[in-house]
Amino acid sequence: MSKPDQSEVNTLGFASTTMELQKNFKQVEEIMANFAKSYEHMDLDPFNLMKSSAEWYAALAKDPQKAINANISFLQKSMELYQQSITNLLGGSVAAEPVISEEKGDRRFKHEGWEEQPAFNAIKQSYLLVSKWLRDQVQGVEGLDEHTAEKVEFFTERYLDAMSPTNFAATNPAVIEKVIETKGANLVHGLKNMLEDLETGKGELRIRMTDTSAFELGENVATTPGKVVFQNRMFQLIQYSPATESVLKRPLLVIPPWINKYYIMDLQPKNSLLKWLVDQGHTVFVVSWVNPDSSYADTTFDDYVTQGVIAAVDAVEKATGESDINMIGYCIGGSLLATSLAYMKAKGDQRVKSATFFTTMLDFSNPGELGVFIDEEQICGLEKKMNESGYLDGTQMAGTFNLMRANDLIWSFYINNYLLGNDPRPFDLLYWNSDSTRMPAKMHAWYLRNLYLENNLCKPGGVTIDGVSIDISKVDIPVCFVSAVEDHIAPWESTYSGAKLFSGDVRFILGGSGHIAGIINPPAAGKYNYRVTDQLPEDAEAWAAEAEVVAGSWWPEWDRWVKVLASDQVAARHPGDRGMSIIEEAPGSYVKRTLNDINPIAPATAAEASPVEMATPAAATQAVVTPTARQDDLTAIKGIGPKLAEVLNNSGINRYSQLAELGSDGIKQHLLGVDERYARYDTTSWPEQARELMSA
Q1: Which of 17, 236, 337, 498 could form a Cys-Cys staple with 362, CB 3.0–4.6 A?
Q2: 331 is catalytic
Q3: Domains of the chain by start residue, with CATH
């Protein structure tokens, strides 16, 4: 506590200060009572920790020596700390070497009071000792299966994070200092902040990380100039305006994850990956996924492939006239891209000539800390929740990611907002992080089971998309993997394993930092370094030891790689050049849908193009045929999306009875007569589905 603060307390007088504190703490009590009521009916064990803890305790009981050793060590260190603390308290300062110290990089104890004041120094060391004792109890327990052991260890760490003395007003010197300075007003304001967050979260405590009112999409984030040139029920496609007189002949299509919004790659001009790519002469397209509502409950992973990635490829071809394109997939957007490439390979679709994967796992045998949240019981619990609403609320997924870095992404904001009573500050990255999306129930359950739980994606034939059995190992185009050495969401060793699945040339780049900063690392920042090779030995650590280390951002390295594959250039392309209808300005309306927007999206417009229109740019402005009373909804047939339904309608097929009469081969021949690329559709089940719909 500073001398002016102490002087102020003495000047005010004990009585008046006490009265002010009592008044403020009365308000605190009232707010806390409301807070407690909000949690009366919540599921307090969503991760099924009671069972895991019981299994751990039973295993520990079979090895009592482990507990005995941990207890003996704890008692010895506790006695040392007791003697040291008495000496420090009598001397009025902290002079001796500590019995135990926090790990390097632990920012919780940066306030000088933890080192300079004997009482707080003793509290800190006591906490660190108890933490070590508990870790010793849960680590390396024999008789536990690997998943349960990881789960117990992970949540023990989260428990220790929560119990840190920094998280309590009475044991945090920074908070006590603020209480004296403000006469308790900081706690009142902090509890009001908490109440507001509870109200926003409808009973769930959603801690604000930033001042969300400071940002507006298209105004000060997601500002790279562009147009929305295509949309369907799954996504909007943004084409960015060129920044160079000529551009690479091959356009570039970016597939972001659907659990986050794409503009992590376009926060500010100084760190926008999308703007940088445009500046390097790429014609850049990015998918902006819809934020689904309950009407998407039955949307499948297949739909994300066929109506998502494949539809986007179709639209890029239409917008540019090019059938050769480069693609990028970020995180699970990369998992989706790899699935789509294997699907296209099986269909004979060769339009994608190179693929890049940012922090992407394809082999989920070692998913890192996320694996803690994936087991049959937890998935069943999620399915039950999702079946009630039709989707998984994005805040639950965001909460999972935050939990993996709880001190940085939960407790630091808890202390700042609630204990110190500060309002959150504007920060673009945290604004994006709080701008959550939903996941369709059916798709998300399939994704968790087939990728994380059963690891089917890396198995030949392990996954079937729209009736097509896929095999990633048959994808032989050049690919580049970009991973981050400190990534806790997609561990780089796991992404390395996935990179080895492809049968073509593979380049692997390992950048610095984590899942976000390792990718969003502009060259001008001069941060980190990266390793890169085109040779991938079996062992990932051996690769890292032998790979060349290069200073700075990996962005230019990737740009050189993709330009070596194809460097031909054409005149700069502008959105709408080939007759594509301009729907709206970037960043579009889909990305602006928040968790509070639960009304269905507007129907797709005439800009929802079909591949048949590609041959005649002028046809791109044709209006979608308006259904008449004698038309059936062909999209009710699995395998027929809105675009294909439009093609069938335009070619004279608009009734279930017509499909039933044509039969599978007849439908196939009809589609081939429209465009040979429609050979990729499996029409086998369509006639039977049509007959079932006729009789319904």
Answers
A1: 498
A2: yes
A3: 226-364+466-571 (3.40.50.1820), 625-695 (1.10.150)
